[in-house]
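Lay summary. Proteins are chains of building blocks that fold into shapes, and those shapes determine what they do. In this project we predict the shape from the chain. Here is one chain we studied, written as its sequence of building blocks.
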Amino acid sequence: MLHHLLTYAMRNGIASEAGFTWRSSIKWLILFDKEGRNPVVIPPGEEKVFAPMLCPDAGTKAQGKAANFLADKARVVACYVETEKPDFSQRKHEFFLDLLSRSGDEVAEIKTAFLGLSNAENIAEICRQLKNFGAKKDDYTTLRISDRTLADCDDWHVWWRSEYRKMRSDSGENPKRNAKKTSNKVLMRCVLTGELVEPVKSHESTIGGLKRVGGRGGERIISFDKDAFQSFCLPEAHNAAASEETAKIYVTALNALISSNSVNVSNAIAVYWFKKPLDKPQEEDIFSLLNASEADIEIDAHVSAKKLFEAISEGKRPWLLDNEYYAMLISGASARVMLREWSEGSFDDLAQSIQYWFDSMEIIQLRGRRVTKWSSLERVITCLLLPRKPHQKYEDWIKPIAGFSKPLWHAALHKDAALPYGLIGRIVPLLASFFVEIAQEESKPPNERSQDYNRVLIPLLHRRMGLLKAYHIRKRGESDMITTNINLEHKSQAYHCGRLLAVLARLQRTALGKVGSGVIQRYYASASQTPGLVLGRLVRNAQNHLSKETVKNPNWFEAWISEISLKIGDSAPSTLSLEQQSLFALGYYQQLAELNKRPVGNGADEDIFTDDETTTNIDADQN
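And here is the predicted shape, written in a compact code that computers can read:
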């Protein structure tokens, strides 16, 4: 796995030498004029972080009294804290200034930055601006003089290489320990390259970008800080020997992938790359289809994937046939990188799997006129939850579904993978109250419905129904039974019981108008669990509705009821299992979509659904 990362780094020229790192988490620039005056804090804009910069990296030295040169946390650079609580970064701030002072003889702009940060009034002004922006004390911050961002310049590289070697040598700190280290030098096989190298004592470089998925802001993928992690009496990182250079390179590569080639998967992040560079990355990067955002709403990812797959199968892009992909599903845990899953395979298999993922998820929209469009895999996973509450932290919101990110990611990459049974255990209990809420909104005129109807409720409904459909297709391979649209020939009684409830609810609304508490509000929960006890009574009551004057075409309803009753048979099931309840929900939903597509045509059955095709994926506030 790590040697693939090493190869990727070398091929793309993103490997950085020891003492440097590509920092992708810089959130603030502190701007001074050419005299080191008039400080201005510059936010990153819509991207939330600046583009990755090659920055100095002091490694574990920055965890003690030392600091990182040019780019460090706001509390180190500017003594910034969000509250009045005491912070113990003053010594690190002084070390940061000392680095600026000594390097200023080499680079004039760095000397200007030193003068600016040495001024107490400037520091106070910088802290005031950071507080107004809502900055955190651990946000990475760097410096700009006029139009030059110091971390982006290379004037300081020579000076920093020399300074970094001095910091690494520990000269003057513990001569006895240094002498012992020199006398005990050994050569070992590098786990990444297989070459004989002098191994580092610890893999100091850390992985960033995992705070959102359980990280602390600096995780290690290789760590031996406890005796239980060590074998054969080997000290620390000698258990996974690597030279200082290779130990740095694989971290640099992974940080670059998190920044540019990643897919958000709820409580984890998936990073991916290809064995050979893609000729047309924007068209051929099929992983990006799983990461579509609301900005891509006009792009039908399903159609894009299908076109790419057809081009591969027809030989129009032969260069992709012998390409391979690599993917890691990772998260943070106790300052370590947790590898949740490793996947690799041919590009052809990947294209087929993602195509199948789209096919199995595809379902008719509630309006009944188009199929649902695709959004991100993350939103599909979070549809297992109730809508996110205002001010609720994302990490707290997704905790109940922590176990679903890995199997759903695996299913997207492997077409033969089944979806977990727990998925319907999460969705089915939500549906009774969910369908009731939608029915209540439908009873209102379109201009009186809540803003959440098209923005939240309808997209959630589509994703939940798509997941239920995918579950049954992947479990049994019954693509002929579980279809995108209504299936009049489905073999399950439970499916047809759900259909019957949808027809009876529509008949009641046609006969009585928009009543406060209709069939769905009163009977969906019980009918989906014990249809044998509920549906017979509702069918008998339907005869009263059919005779109402408001029902202009009773034969239309009678035809539906008769057709469905024949499929159910002599009697409806007395109870339904959880899987059968999910089929009941699918039957109810698809029958409702069919009724909306082909309304009766009289005034009482006016098509009350607004055009939701363009809002299917808009629920950004949920994520």
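What the prediction tells us: DSSP finds 21 helices and 13 strands in the chain.
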